[in-house]
Specification:
The protein is mainly alpha-helical. The protein has 11 helices and 4 strands.
Length: about 270
């Protein structure tokens, strides 16, 4: 739990969310130290570092800042959270409501849309109701999910490239989008009668892609930085086997479904 070193990439910043769940002074100290990477002294930077201009960064840094605001009661962290999200949206949010993965091309990579859906859901769970950016972030959250709804396939899945149905149905993006839908339903940002069928269709599709051993997963996109072309996203390897990212996202969703609906929907 040393606070002597700081994260060197976005994934390590996101990993700091673990500290937000540990009720000790040293864990809170680490959370605040990482959130302070978004500031030069008291002056907010244009965004959190290591975003690499990727839509992933909505999740990689947004929730950490929101949790720091919740832990300290200091508005500056909530403000910088909203500022960081707007920065990424200016780079990556397309006119049709989907996210391009990066400004290099218009490809709406699956996990590149799962990350902002998941990240904004987590931010809204901790952003105060009276924060001046709350309404706009809620509108953004709902707008993104409405755009994604148009691309859910007949098996409940979202694809490696969201708006390209000939790309493969991808496991992790479906888990993340479904989690965001579940949180939206629970907080009444989404109408349950409309969204419950989409949520459980996604869960059905996810379960069908988990082997009987509970470990083998089907069609998890390999690790993917920003790619130069649309074709490069098509060519990303689909993993068949064990995958920690896919497993973690499935467990996150399953836990949320159990909390909301009980074990009968597991």
């Amino acid at each position: 739990h040393s606070t002597s070193s700081l994260p060197k990439n976005g994934g390590a910043i996101a990993g700091t969310l673990l500290y937000a769940e540990i009720p000790t002074d040293w864990a809170e100290e680490r959370l605040i130290k990482v959130a302070d990477m978004g500031f030069d002294g008291e002056k907010p930077l244009k965004s959190m570092p290591f975003h690499s201009e990727m839509s992933d960064a909505v999740f990689m840094s947004g929730p950490v800042l929101a949790r720091a605001g919740e832990a300290t009661g200091e508005t500056k962290y909530f403000d910088q959270c909203a500022n960081h999200i707007r920065f990424i949206q200016d780079l990556c949010l397309r006119d049709d409501g989907l996210y391009r993965h990066s400004p290099l091309n218009e490809a709406a990579w699956g996990r590149g849309n799962g990350f902002p859906a998941l990240g904004l859901a987590m931010v809204l769970d901790h952003l105060p109701e009276n924060h001046p950016d709350r309404a706009s972030l809620e509108t953004s959250f709902k707008g993104h999910l409405n755009a994604l709804a148009d691309h859910q396939d007949a098996n409940g899945m979202w694809h490696q490239i969201i708006d390209m149905p000939d790309s493969y149905a991808e496991f992790t993006s479906t888990c993340m989008i479904a989690y965001a839908i579940a949180r939206g339903i629970d907080t009444e940002l989404l109408n349950a009668s409309i969204w419950n069928p989409r949520l459980f269709a996604a869960w059905s599709g996810i379960k069908a892609r988990i082997g009987s051993d509970g470990e083998t997963l089907y069609n998890v996109c390999e690790g993917t930085g920003k790619q130069p072309t649309l074709e490069a996203y098509y060519r990303r390897k689909a993993i068949l086997g064990k995958d920690s990212r896919g497993g973690a996202m499935a467990i996150l969703l399953a836990e949320e479904l159990i909390q909301q609906f009980g074990t009968e929907n597991r």
